[in-house]
Amino acid sequence: MRTIPSIGLLLLAGCQTAPPPAPREAIPAPFTAHGATFSMADERHDWERQQQVFGSATVYRMARVFPNPWDALAKETEAAVEAMSEKPVRVDVFVTSFRLVRKEDKPSIHDPSENVKIGRQSVAGLNGAQNRLTYEQLKQSNANGDQKAANAVGSGLLFADGNPAISVQGKPPEPEEEAGALAEHPAGASCRVRATVRLTFPGGREKLADVTAIAAGQNATGTMYWGEALDLAAKQAVRQYGLHLRRELGVAN
């Protein structure tokens, strides 16, 4: 006796399986440390949460960075609070911007290597050995967890306009409403984090700290692979966030 497949099976066989949704970024769950409850809130605009292209710039999901940059952000916040003499009972971190960007230059304008400078020289004006050495030192300092050395090496990196490639800013402006507002990002790989940290003390007193940090990473591989530069930019931006937060809270680095 022949078996006739059911209509349901025929329809199922003819359907293509939908691609799995992109994994959500792993935002740390609330945790307790140093007598305080810490909470991280992702309040970014939707366009920062997904990979997409805006002209010559590509925005990447923070989930591509390893280890998890959200965990690193939480640890930097915890470390700053630990250094405070008066401890809060609650710390809320409202992250309004946390984005990873790779921006290409327009070849018709000038050499892309002129957009990143080491010291007062452009990358184009440096020999390959010196360029690689600077970034190898920065990567090694990150790998060893030597924050002071990493900041010392990174402080010599400049954007095309002479501003530090690793920098902190004052009170952040209101979040951009326009998708792809990436004018402040330099050519190459960069990461920017902006957050308002609210500390609540016993009795209900509150203190707000507005923090913005941006850091750049250069592709020193000599290939089209940008993963290493993007990772480095994210790690440096998170560290600068921590340094700025400490200054806002009045604690030593």
Q: Indicate the proportion of strand residues.
A: 25-35%
Count of discrete structural domains: 1
The shape, in one word, is globular
- Mean pLDDT, to the nearest integer, reads 75
Strand runs, count: 11
Pairing-aware structural class of the strands and helices?
A: alpha+beta
Distance between the termini: 81 Å
Q: Kindly state the percentage of residues in helix.
A: 25-40%
- H-E string: HEEEEHEEEHHEEEEH
Number of helices: 5
Biggest sheet character? 8 strands, mixed
* Radius of gyration based on Cα positions: 22 Å
Uncertain parts: 4-14, 18-22, 107-131, 158-175
Task: Walk me through this protein's architecture.
The protein has 253 residues and is an alpha+beta fold. The protein has one domain (25-249). Helices cover 28% and strands 26% of the residues. The protein contains 5 helices and 11 strands; from the N terminus they run H-E-E-E-E-H-E-E-E-H-H-E-E-E-E-H. The protein has helices spanning 7-14, 69-82, 128-144, 147-154, 227-249, and strands at 31-33, 36-42, 52-54, 57-60, 90-103, 116-118, 121-122, 157-159, 167-169, 188-200, 206-217. The strands form 2 sheets. Strands 1, 2, 3, 4, 5, 9, 10 and 11 form an 8-stranded mixed β-sheet that branches. A 3-stranded antiparallel β-sheet has the order 7-6-8, with no helix packed on it. Helix 3 (128-144) runs antiparallel to helix 4 (147-154). The longest helix has 23 residues, at 227-249. The protein is globular and about 55 Å long. 33% of the residues are buried.
